[in-house]
Amino acid sequence: MQLVFATNNLNKLKEVQAIMPQHIKLISLKDIACNEDIPETQPTIEGNAIQKAEYLKKHYNYDCFADDTGLEVEALKGEPGVFSARYAGPQRNSEDNTNKLLTELSDKPNRTAQFKTVIALHLNGELHTFTGICKGEITVTQHGKGGFGYDPVFKADGYDKTFAEISLEEKNKIGHRGKAVAKLIRFLKEKQARSNL
Predict the structure, then answer these.
(1) Which tens digits make up the pLDDT trace of 17-67?
(2) Which is nearest to 83 in space by CA: 39, 36, 42, 29?
C-alpha cells in the first residue's frame, strides 16, 4: 500500500516513518512534485487536516493523509492551538514561538497544556479522521536538544523530562502524533484484513 503524507515538515515525516509498518510505503510531497503551500485556513485543527488531505486528493489524486497539530494551553484559553506553527508570526520560527509562549505564561501559575494531533485520511474516496492527545504541562525554561517545535518546554504527565529530552521511540509511544498514527495504522490493518477475507 502506498500513501502520500501531506507534509513538508521533515521532522514529522521522520516521526511517522519510524512507526509505520513496512508494508505501507510513505510517499512525500517532494516525491509527487507537490511544491506549493497546501492551504491551512480552517479555524480548527481537524478542519486544517481535512483541508490538506482533500486538497491533495483533488489536485494530485493520490490516496493520502494529512495531519495538523496544535498545543493547547489552559491558562491561555486553548492558545496557541490552530496557530501553533505561526504563533509568533508568519515566519513559523520554533524558537520565536516558544519564547512567546514562555513570555505569555510568565505570570500564570497554571501551566497545564495538551498537544493534539488530528490525522485526516483520504482512502478509496472516503475520508476518515483520527485524533491523538497528550496531556502535560509547560516548563518554566527550555530543556533538551531533541524533538522540534515546542518539545523543549512540554513535559507529558507522569514524566520528569520534556519531549526534547526523551528518545523518538519514547515520544512516539506517549505522544499525540504517535497515538493518532497508531489509530491510523490499526484502521488500515483492519481494512486490509477485511479485504483479504
Answers:
(1) 888 988 888 998 999 999 998 999 999 999 999 999 999 999 999 999 999
(2) 42
Angstrom distance (rounded) from CA 156 to CA 30: 33
Angle subtended by helix axes 176-195 and 10-17, to nearest 10: 50
Amino acid at the residue 184: L
Q: Which amino acid is at 63?
A: D
Q: What pTM does this model have?
A: 0.91
Could you give all domains of the chain from N- to C-terminal order, each with its CATH number? Answer: 2-195 (3.90.950.10)
- Contact indicator for 78, 87 with CB cutoff of 8 Å: no
Q: Enumerate residues 6+ apart whose C-beta is below 8 A from 37.
A: none
Coil, strand, or helix at residue 192? helix
Q: What is the pLDDT of residues 176-193, one digit of tens each?
A: 999 999 999 999 988 888
Residues 6+ apart with CB under 8 A from 5: 12, 13, 16, 26, 27, 28, 29, 64, 65, 66
**68 classed as catalytic:** yes
Catalytic residue among 68, 96, 157, 160: 68
